UniProtKB/TrEMBL annotation:
It comes from Paenibacillus anseongense. The keyword Transferase does not apply. InterPro entries: Alkylbase_DNA_Glycosylase/TA, DNA_glycosylase, HhH-GPD_domain. This is DNA-3-methyladenine glycosylase II. Residues 1-14 have a biased composition (Low complexity). Residues 1-24 are annotated as: Disordered. Keywords: DNA damage, DNA repair. It comes from the Bacteria. Residues 72-224 form the HhH-GPD domain. Residues 15-24 have a biased composition (Polar residues). CDD domains: ENDO3c. It catalyses: Hydrolysis of alkylated DNA, releasing 3-methyladenine, 3-methylguanine, 7-methylguanine and 7-methyladenine.
Length: 247
């Protein structure tokens, strides 16, 4: 899970600019207003929500560090990325743009970070310092403008930017149409016929706005928990779960 086309047909052109998330963890449960709205809009998603149960989402305390670490983690396993990031934090304990630029590149390379990724992190640092990417004023940008600014940084593609917007900023209406796991889960959820373009989200995600981020969390969990590969529909998975719980 850990690289929306803003012109995609399921984007919300009337979206209001979001406010900055606090550090308060968002607890998603069946009585949460967003979950109630999603359940009403899509009965199959409602079944999945019942299957998965409660989920949490906590915004990042340091957007800059989150972005830099996302670059470091690209194309690495979770375990390898964790090891490398821990080493980098020993070299740069206080992870700020200024200190990243001041750090010895060879020392960071010895942590396991490739030279291209080091260049990407330095580019990110310089853009933040220059004000080209204003991480201190994210609330002033709508999703489309923020996506544009993030992807102007070397090494940050659309997928990485979307994951940052979802998990670090907790923006509630992001839909990553380029995420293969989400597309596969969407096809399973609604038992859709195969499409040449592979865009199953385009058929069903518009109904989830303005809470597409939250819907995505449940789709990813459907993959992680094995429902997508179970050979059963979401309704059958729910029935099986109820039977197990009652025995």
């Amino acid at each position: 899970m850990l690289d929306i086309d803003p012109s995609n047909s399921d984007s919300n052109s009337n979206e209001q600019k979001p406010t900055v998330s606090s550090r308060t963890t968002i607890l998603l449960h069946q009585k949460h207003p967003a979950i109630l709205a999603l359940s009403e809009a899509d009965h199959r998603l409602a079944c999945l929500i019942r299957l998965v149960g409660e989920l949490t989402l906590t915004p990042s305390a340091s957007p800059f560090e989150s972005l830099a670490m996302s670059i470091i983690s690209q194309q690495l396993s979770t375990k390898a990325a964790g090891t490398i990031k821990a080493r980098v934090k020993e070299i740069v304990p206080e992870f700020t743009p200024e200190l990243v630029l001041a750090a010895d590149e060879n020392a960071i390379r010895q942590c396991g970070v490739s030279f291209p990724k080091i260049r990407y992190i330095r580019d990110l640092s310089m853009k933040v310092i220059a004000g080209d990417l204003r991480l201190d004023a994210l609330h002033e940008l709508d999703n489309e403008e923020l996506l544009k600014q993030l992807t102007s940084v070397k090494g940050i593609g659309t997928w990485t930017a979307e994951m940052f917007m979802m998990f670090a900023l907790c923006r509630q209406d992001i839909m990553s149409v380029g995420d293969a796991g989400l597309q596969r889960a969407a096809r399973w959820l609604h038992q859709l016929e195969e499409r040449k373009d592979g865009n199953y989200l385009g058929q069903i995600a518009p109904a989830w706005s303005p809470y597409r981020t939250f819907a995505s969390l449940y789709l990813w969990r459907a993959v992680d928990m094995g429902f997508v590969d179970s050979g059963l529909s979401v309704e059958a998975c729910l029935d099986s779960s109820v039977i197990v719980d009652e025995t």
